[in-house]
Fold this protein.
Amino acid sequence: MKRDMCAWKNQVIADPVKKPMPILTFPVIQLLGISVQELISDSNTQAQAMKLLADRDDSLAAVSMMDLSLEAESFGAEILVSEGEVPAIVGTLVNNQEEADRLEVPAVGMGRTQIYLDAMARSVELITDRPVLAGIIGPYSLAGRLLGTAQAMKACKKNPQLVHTVLEKCTQFLIAYAKAYQSAGANGIVMAEPLTGLLSPKMAVDFSEPYVKRIVDAVQQDDFIVIYHNCGNNTMLMMDSLLRVGAKGYHFGNAISMKEAVSLCPGDLLCMGNVNPATFTFGTPESIYQETQTVMEACCGWPHFVISSGCDIPPIAKWENIDAFYKAAADFYAAR
C-alpha cells in the first residue's frame, strides 16, 4: 500500500508513544516449525512469516529479512546455509583487478532476489496497517562479501581501484534492486552497511559515502524512504559522513552509545537502536527487559528516537526474550 512516508516519519517523531521497530524476521522459523533454508527459498513462506509477525507484535513497521548473502549470491558468490544460522558467503568471488573488470552486474531476479521481490509484493497485500520495508545490503558491505572482508579492508589502502571497480558494479545493482522493491510495493528499504563501521572515517568518505548517497538519491522520495544501518565500532567517528548520504532514518548497533548517536542525529530524522542482539539469544527475559529500559531511559528524551534491536535478531533468539523487549517498551511509555 502506498504511503506518504515523509509524513509517516514526521508523525512518528511527533507521537509521544512510539512503537518499537526491531529488525526481526528470522526467529519466525521457530513459530512456523521450519528451517532457515525453507524460509529463504520460498516467497509465499516469507510473506506468511512477515504477516505472522505483524499479527503477533505491534511493531512500527514490518521489515523483510536482512539476508546479507542474497545480493552477493546473485553476483555468483557461493553461500552456506545451516539449520539455525543466517546464510553466509563461502570464499571470495573477486581476487584481483582482472576479475573485478570481468565481474558482471547481475539482472535483478538472479539468484534468490526474485523470491524476495515476490515475497514483498505479497507481503504488502497482507500487511496494510503499517509500512512494509525491504532489507538490502549496502554497497561497501556487498563489495566486502565479493572481495572477502580482509581483502576489501586492505585494498582500500593498497589497491583502491580494485575496490572502486567492485563498488561501482555493486551500486548499479543495488539501485536497480531497490527500485524493484519500490515497484513491488515496498514503502522503503533498510540498508545494512555494517562493514563501513570498521573503516576509518576518511576511508568511509571515500569508499562508502558516495556510493550510498547515489543509491539514496536514486530511490528515496515521498513514498519510499531509506533507513541506513551501521553497527560498526567506528560509527560515531564518521557520523558527519553518514548524515551526508541523506537517509530519512538511521539505525545503529550496540557497539556505540545510543545516547551519543541520537544526540548527534538531527531531530527531523528517525534514529533507531540499539539493544544487543545477543541478549535476545543468550539473555533472559529479565536481562533484556532491563537493557531495553536502560536504552529508552537514556534516549527517549529525544522525540526522534525509536527503540530497536541493535542489528538483525538471530534465528535462534528466544521468543520469551523478544516478548520481554516489547513489554519493556510498552511499560516504559505507560509509566511516563
